[in-house]
Amino acid sequence: MFLKQGNNSRRFIEYNYVNNEEIDINKFNIVHNVSDDIYNTTKSFFKKNILLLDNGAFSNKFKLAFKSQL
Questions:
Q1: Which domain holds residue 28?
Q2: Which site in 2, 4, 34, 63 is 20 to 30 Å from 28, CA atoms measured?
Q3: HSE of 57 in the Cβ direction (CA atoms, 13 Å)?
Q4: pLDDT by residue (tens digit) across 6-41?
């Protein structure tokens, strides 16, 4: 969701998936209180996959600022 929503409160979602259940996008929930572990995992992922940022909906200024924090 980070690549689609950007660095805002809608970037983390949760979904309770049950085996063989069809996914219903109306059952996604936005997560507001995210642990530091999840933020660190996100940073680690983008550090290893930095080129994905170029496909996101970000300004060049934001990309540079985000990359400098990795």
A1: 2-69
A2: 63
A3: 9
A4: 666 677 889 888 888 898 889 999 888 888 898 888
